[in-house]
Amino acid sequence: MKSKAGAPGPVQNRYNRARFYMDRLVGVILLYSLKVANIFFIVSAGGIFLFNVYAIVAYIRHLVLIRRINNTESVVADTTEAGGAAK
Asked: Which residues share a beta bridge with 2?
């Protein structure tokens, strides 16, 4: 997405910056994976990465579920109409 002057807009700048750091991260991981002694690092970093992706997806899913809750009515039941249990 470019602005009228031809320069990239703020969304494109964020995308480019994120892609730059992701490319560097992949490069570092590939560099370490070339050495057999560092295979444990690759497996550990990959596991942590996958766990974090799962946690973020679960968090977003929970936010969506919370927004779908209808709280227009009272959550606590009015017990005085249900037989006078509250005295």
From this structure: 8
Q: Are 2 and 8 spatial neighbours (Cβ–Cβ below 8 Å)? A: yes
Residue 16: partners with Cβ closer than 8 Å, 6 or more residues away: 8
If you write DSSP's letter for every residue of 4-71 in order, what string do you get? TTSSB-HHHHHHHHHHHHHHHHHHHHHHHHTSGGGHHHHHHHHHHHHHHHHHHHHHHHHHHHHHT---
Reduced to 3 states (helix: H, G, I; strand: E, B; else coil), residue 2 is strand
Domain boundaries, the chain: 1-34, 37-69
Name residue, tokens 């606590």.
76
Residue 64 pLDDT greater than 90, yes or no: yes
Residue-wise pLDDT tens digits, 4-62: 555 566 667 777 887 888 888 888 877 766 776 677 877 888 899 999 999 999 999 99
